[in-house]
Amino acid sequence: MQYNKDRSHNIFASGNGLTPGTGSLAGASSGFQAGEGTVENVTLGTYLQEQLAWRNNVFLNAAVRGDKNSAFGVDIGWVWYPSVSLAWSLGDESFFPKPSWLSNLRLRTAYGQSGLRPGFLDALQYYSGVSAVTAQGLEPGFVITGAGNPSLKPEISREYEFGADLGFLNGRAALDLTYYNKKSTNALINRPLAPSLGASTSRYENIGSMLNKGLELSLNGGIIQTNALDWEATITGSYNRNELLVLGQGIPPIVGGFGDTQQYRPGYPAGAYFDRPITYKDANGDGTISPSEVTVGDTAAYLGQPFPTRQYSFSTDLTLWNRVRLSGLLNYSGGQKLFDRTMASRCTTAQAVCQARFDPNAPLSEQAAIVAYNQTGTYAGFIVPATYWQLQEVSLTLMAPKSWLGRMRAHDVSLTISGRNLATWSKYPGFNPQVNFDGQSNFTTADFFTLPPARYWTARVNVTF
User: For the chain, first and last CA: distance in Å?
Assistant: First the structure.
């Protein structure tokens, strides 16, 4: 059993024009403001698990968890999340043939459920105090701030997976494969409400279902293993498909994101980019796109999704004479697009200072994006591919010889110099395709005067006694 209670309380006050010589808000001469807030969440949980092993070859794990949370609607009681997993070391069975190149084979499968609870006020109807102007002056009053939803449940995810772990060449190499299929139901979606209700403009409801499925793989092994040289490498990859299956009976696509460029629309990835598409052609070949050379669609069309559909990484460790170690990590991310709102803001105003507005050598796509926005307000030309390669990290470690350790009375001494975010290769026109000005949101993605990841170097000395 488990009982958790989280509570935070804050008081905020500010004022302008402090009287000289005082450091108290009581000395503020204007603009005095005060606010107070409390966030509280309580969870009561129970968990039961059973693990079984048969002949040290077959392993079964079954569990169930139950939660009751203060953020659930008043009509909701306990919510249960079962799970089960099964693994079979097939390569260790006596009947399984044992080729010389295969040293291990393990099959596994699993099914489980998990939940995402609502926010602590999402299910409640609550009010905020206001000042109302009457014939007698200002009077205290209140307005409905949260519409509430007494039937609000947690979002439920049901996932099953199948996988295999293979070992090769007497354990020198290993391959792990996993297929997963995850379906989320009762999705928590902030549904807009009609202004005529006289309450909040939206409320959370369990009205959607979403699918995520894909494949993950990992290949690692020792390429060279000698007394003088030890070289190991790992390659990982993943493929993912995301789709919003159901939004709710009679609910139109939910529009949001920066500039209303992203939508929750059934049949498309969550947070997909939509806007009126553009086509262009430099008909006279003068290197400049004019308004007559740009065509804008009549209705919003699917332009891409904000999250990658494929990701790869390559890491390696090279050790020489047990004294020098060189490591590196290279990443790839592809299939996603990013809204370059930075360029849109810089290049579409009357005071714009950007290459695409004045330089005929600027890319035609950027010129067309600006012309289309100025004509119709579409951001389609600024929603661009954000595929990239990144050299994320390189490090060099020097380990002290044994003869030094005795003098220093140490067991081990090493010096490591490493660099991160060293280089990025991408056709994305902005500073960096990894940025997101609103990273705390689930699906709102855009580059809006956002600083890219900083490149930095570190030096570290480790001494073990």
Answer: 42
Instruction: Please give the structure tokens belonging to residue 268.
Output: 């498309």
Nearest Cα residue to 340 out of 445, 252, 270, 443: 445
CA-based radius of gyration for the chain: 29
For residue 298, give both structure tokens.
Answer: 């009549």
| 195: three-class secondary structure by DSSP | helix
User: Could you tell me if 115 and 66 are in contact, meaning their C-beta atoms sit under 8 angstroms apart?
Assistant: no
Q: Please report how many Cα atoms fall inside a 13 Å half-sphere around the Cα of residue 253, on the Cβ side.
A: 22
The tens-digit pLDDT sequence of the chain (465 residues) is 999 999 999 999 998 888 888 878 888 888 888 888 888 999 999 999 999 999 999 999 999 999 999 999 888 889 999 999 999 999 989 888 888 889 899 999 999 999 988 888 888 888 888 888 888 888 888 888 888 888 899 999 999 999 999 999 888 899 999 999 999 999 888 777 878 777 777 888 888 899 999 999 999 998 888 888 999 999 999 999 999 998 877 788 888 888 899 998 999 998 999 999 999 998 888 888 889 999 999 999 999 999 999 999 999 999 998 889 999 999 999 999 999 999 998 888 776 677 777 777 888 999 999 999 988 999 999 999 999 999 999 999 998 887 777 777 777 888 999 999 999 999 999 899 999 987 766 677 899 998 899 999 999 998 888
DSSP for 101-168 reads TEEEEEEEEEEEEEEEPPPTTTTS-EEEEEEEEETTEEEEEEEEEE---TT---EEEEEEEEEEEEEE
Name the nearest CA neighbour of 112 among 85, 79, 140. Answer: 85
Q: How far is CA 372 from CA 152, 256, 296, 355, in A?
A: 43, 21, 7, 16
Residue 267 forms beta bridges with which residues?
none
Nearest CA-CA partner of 386 in 462, 333, 326: 333
Instruction: With CA atoms as reference, report the closest residue to 269 among 238, 237, 300, 306.
Output: 306
For 280, the token pair is 């262009």
Angle among Cα 192, 196, 202 to the nearest 5 degrees reads 20
* 393 and 329 Cβ atoms separated by less than 8 Å: yes
- The three-state secondary structure class of 416 is strand
